[in-house]
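Inverse folding, one chain.
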């Protein structure tokens, strides 16, 4: 009889223990239903949807992720804007006192991508649309100077911006420096409208050889009957002329121009200094002369490229032979060469 009673008591205890475990299990329930934890740089509202029977607490380890609401059904938080280049992460922890769940909050870095080779937009006097590529995580502003708004406007699209210029009937060169800004990032563009023949005339100038700066006087650019151009007096007092053609509304000077006899029995060549500082006389390579707008609204003509791969400058080189095979030395190196009216640069 005692043995039967002990068996009965054991069964009751087992049931009681199982009942206790079931109760404890139901009290510690923490079930995740849905999450929103990945964000663009603009930030936004995130959530962890859950089902719990206990008292819910939440904690996050950064100040750019702010808890807004915590209850047994949902944890709501807000991710602030990320204006930095790099993405960032936070750790959000949710607990009901027994069970704990951790979630990574991920946010992308801010994007402001523009074509570095599109900063200079030169065009002739016809009405035109000048597209540039630009992507930004944030809305951006486009600041066109008030004095240019009559002839210059823009339209935004999925790929970037279309600058629109009206026909130029003013009879003179005009331009604007346009600033595009998104948060703490910006890009500047020069939009210049003119006739390429406005580069003809007599100019003053300056250049560097990489060590010192030098002045130039009475540089002339003349248009020929065949539509080409001649540039004279770059070597002050010497008769050498450089030939150019109008390309992309600039004057393009080919490398390898044989300028003829120099000091009776030597020969002179016009060559280009590449972006990686090599001397180039391949005639397929050119250096361009075109207008650049200064911050005060005046224009200079610069032997400078738009792209990072464009030539660094040009050089006059002396050779022993008319075939330009046996180089002797450089006569003069021109870097950062600009031409201007005498009253522009004081």
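Residues assigned per position:
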């Amino acid at each position: 009889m005692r043995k039967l009673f002990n068996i009965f008591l054991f069964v009751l205890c087992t049931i009681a223990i199982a009942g206790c475990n079931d109760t404890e299990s139901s009290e510690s329930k923490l079930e995740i239903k849905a999450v929103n934890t990945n964000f663009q740089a603009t930030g936004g509202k995130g959530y962890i949807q859950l089902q719990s029977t206990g008292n819910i607490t939440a904690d996050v380890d950064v100040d750019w992720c702010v808890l807004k609401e915590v209850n047994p059904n949902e944890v709501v938080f807000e991710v602030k804007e990320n204006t930095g280049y790099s993405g960032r992460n936070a750790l959000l922890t949710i607990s009901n006192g027994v069970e704990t769940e951790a979630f990574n909050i991920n946010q992308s870095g801010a994007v402001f991508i523009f074509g570095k080779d599109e900063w200079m937009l030169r065009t002739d006097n016809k009405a035109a649309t000048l597209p540039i590529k630009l992507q930004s995580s944030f809305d951006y502003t486009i600041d066109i100077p008030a004095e240019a708004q009559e002839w210059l406007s823009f339209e935004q699209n999925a790929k970037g911006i279309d600058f629109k210029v009206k026909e130029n009937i003013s009879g003179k060169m005009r331009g604007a420096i346009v600033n595009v800004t998104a948060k703490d990032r910006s890009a500047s563009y020069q939009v210049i409208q003119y006739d390429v023949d406005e580069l003809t005339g007599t100019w003053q100038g300056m250049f560097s050889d990489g060590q010192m700066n030098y002045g130039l006087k009475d540089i002339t650019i003349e248009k020929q009957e065949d539509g080409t151009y001649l540039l004279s007096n770059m070597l002050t007092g010497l008769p050498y002329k450089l030939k150019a053609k109008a390309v992309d509304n600039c004057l393009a000077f080919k490398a390898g121009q044989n300028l003829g006899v120099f000091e009776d029995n030597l020969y002179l060549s016009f060559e280009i200094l590449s972006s990686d500082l090599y001397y180039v006389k391949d005639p397929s390579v050119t250096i361009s002369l075109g207008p650049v707008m200064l911050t005060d609204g005046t224009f200079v003509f610069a032997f400078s490229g738009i792209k990072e791969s464009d030539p660094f400058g040009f050089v006059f080189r002396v050779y022993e032979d008319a075939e330009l095979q046996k180089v002797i030395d450089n006569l003069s190196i021109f870097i950062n060469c600009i031409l201007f009216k005498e009253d522009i640069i004081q």
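Residues 196-340 form one domain. The chain is about 10% helix and 55% strand.
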